[in-house]
Amino acid sequence: MNPADLPLRDIHLPAPVGWWPLAPGWWVLLCLLIGGVAFLFWWWKRKKPTVNGLELALRTLDQLQGKYGKNTKALLRELSVLLRRVAISQYGRQQVSGLTGGAWLDFLDEKAGTNLFKGKFDSLLTELPYRAETQVETEALTQAIREWIKLQRRNTHV
C-alpha cells in the first residue's frame, strides 16, 4: 500500500475560541471587582474628614477679620454673633439664648474652663457692639474667641 494513495488530509484545528460570551468565572470576578470598588468608595467617603461646626466657625472668624479689618463696630457685632452661634450649636438654645451681660461672660468662661472673657472683654462683648461709634483693638478679643472655639473641641455636648 502506497501512503500517497490514501485519502488522508492534514490535521484540522478547531475554530479559535471567542472572548464573548464570557465564562461564568469571569462574570463572578467582574461582580467581585465592581463590589470591591463600590465598597472602597463607600469606606473612603465615610472616613473622609468632614468640616464640623467648630472648623467652620474658625474659618468664619478668619473671614470676619479680613472682611471688617478696621471697622471695629461691625467686627465686634459679628464676633458677638459668631460666638453666640457657636455656643448655641454646642450647648443648645435653651441653655444659651437667655444669657446676657455678666451671665453670658461667666458661661463662656465656665465652658472654656479658664478665665478668657470675664474682666478682660466685659464691655467689648456686652456694650460696645451697641454703641454709636467704637474704635478699639479687637485682636486680643479675636484670639480669645479663637481659643474658646478650639477648647470646645475636647467637650462633647448636645
List the helices and strands and how they pair.
Layout: H1 24-47, H2 53-68, H3 72-91, H4 93-96, H5 101-112, H6 122-126, H7 139-151
From N to C, what is the helix and strand string? Answer: HHHHHHH
Q: What is the distance, rounded to the nearest whole angstrom, between the alpha carbons of the first and last residues? A: 103 Å
List the total number of helices. Answer: 7
Q: Give the structural class.
A: mainly alpha
For the biggest sheet, the summary is: none
Low-confidence stretches: none
* Mean pLDDT score: 85
Give the percentage of residues in beta strands: under 5%
Shape: rod-shaped
Task: Provide the helix percentage.
Answer: 55-70%
Task: Characterize the structure shown.
This protein is mainly alpha-helical and 158 residues long. The protein has a domain at 70-153. The protein is 59% helix and 0% strand. It has seven helices and no strands. The protein has helices at residues 24-47, 53-68, 72-91, 93-96, 101-112, 122-126, 139-151. α2 packs antiparallel against α3 (72-91) and α2 packs antiparallel against α7 (139-151). The longest helix is centred in the N-terminal third of the chain and has 24 residues, at 24-47. The chain is rod-shaped and about 125 Å long. The chain starts with 23 loop residues before the first helix and ends in a 7-residue tail after the last helix. The relative contact order is 0.11.
